[in-house]
């Protein structure tokens, strides 16, 4: 028994050490990688449920570390936030997304790209002017860039955040609530938030086939959103059963592995914009 315990501790130590080493490597590399603009963007299509047509894509950040391989954004985005680098990372994403959107609009003029914003970016007074500069540099209307924000941003009462939200709305950037249903945003708040699109979190979509309560919730959220003039996007659609149920329930926009994984720009253009 004593031996087992020792072994247990040994593997715990080794695991912890591995995690610390990994974290140190990532911490060292991230500032350089952002500075050298070595992060890449992947694009996941968003599909109109009624026609199957391409509406746009969500922009997702990718990092390939020389030694560690691909690092998931769920790991490096929080790290960038902790290291005070999220502003720089976010700027890079915004500028690239604007450039890419302009290029692709030559093939599909109404294409819209959705960019994820960290709550910390909302604390920076320069957010709106930065976004305006990015779209103006490529002669894009602000409507070409949808901004995905989390419920927590909308529920916070900080002055900087409210000012940013007001400026972004006035400038004409469409706002989407990301991962809707996972936070604490009450449905009663929705009409006041001036958000044009709700992205229903993947956890709801996953349970559509198995949990009748979830099914009822999703149905009523879709109904409510329509009544107050909001769009609904279902995230994480993986099966035809989920797709067909969502279409029947009136969900207009679909996104998930059933249609495509997030793709590098070239692969996205070849597959969805008919570029060769
Ligand atoms: P998110 O904004 O909720 O993005 C959707 C995530 O779900 C992406 O993971 C996407 O690859 C994944 N996904 C899409 N369809 C499916 C599906 O059918 N099944 C499953 N299982 N997963 C699906 P990813 O790319 O790993 O990104 C994770 C999170 O990292 C994002 O969640 C977002 O919160 C954050 N993130 C990514 N890029 C950025 C960025 O440029 N800025 C900021 N602030 N956050 C980012
Ligand atoms: Ca998102
Ligand atoms: Ca999401
Ligand atoms: Ca998320």
Automatic annotation (TrEMBL):
<protein>
    <submittedName>
        <fullName>EAL domain-containing protein</fullName>
    </submittedName>
</protein>
<feature type="domain" description="EAL">
    <location>
        <begin position="23"/>
        <end position="276"/>
    </location>
</feature>
């Amino acid at each position: 028994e004593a031996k087992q315990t020792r072994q247990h501790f040994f593997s715990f130590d080794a695991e912890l050490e591995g995690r610390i080493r990994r974290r140190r490597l990532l911490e060292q590399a991230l500032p350089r990688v952002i500075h050298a603009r070595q992060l890449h963007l992947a694009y996941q299509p968003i599909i109109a449920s009624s026609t199957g047509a391409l509406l746009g894509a969500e922009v997702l950040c990718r990092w390939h570390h020389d030694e560690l391989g691909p690092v998931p954004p769920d790991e490096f985005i929080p790290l960038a936030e902790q290291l005070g680098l999220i502003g720089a990372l976010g700027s890079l994403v915004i500028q690239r997304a604007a450039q890419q959107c302009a290029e692709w609009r030559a093939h599909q003029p109404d294409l819209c790209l959705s960019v994820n914003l960290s709550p910390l970016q909302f604390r920076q007074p320069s957010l709106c002017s930065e976004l305006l500069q990015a779209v103006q540099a490529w002669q894009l209307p602000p409507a070409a860039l949808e901004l995905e924000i989390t419920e927590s941003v909308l529920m916070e009462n900080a002055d900087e955040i409210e000012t940013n939200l007001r400026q972004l709305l006035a400038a004409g950037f469409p706002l989407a609530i990301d991962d809707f249903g996972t936070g604490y945003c009450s449905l009663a708040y929705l009409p006041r938030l001036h958000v044009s699109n709700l992205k229903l979190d993947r956890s709801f979509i996953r349970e559509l086939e198995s949990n009748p309560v979830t099914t009822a919730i999703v149905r009523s959220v879709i109904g409510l959103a329509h009544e107050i003039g909001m769009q609904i996007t279902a995230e994480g659609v993986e099966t035809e059963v989920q797709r067909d149920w969502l279409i029947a329930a009136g969900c207009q926009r679909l996104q998930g592995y059933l249609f495509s994984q997030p793709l590098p720009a070239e692969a996205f253009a070849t597959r969805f914009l008919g570029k060769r």
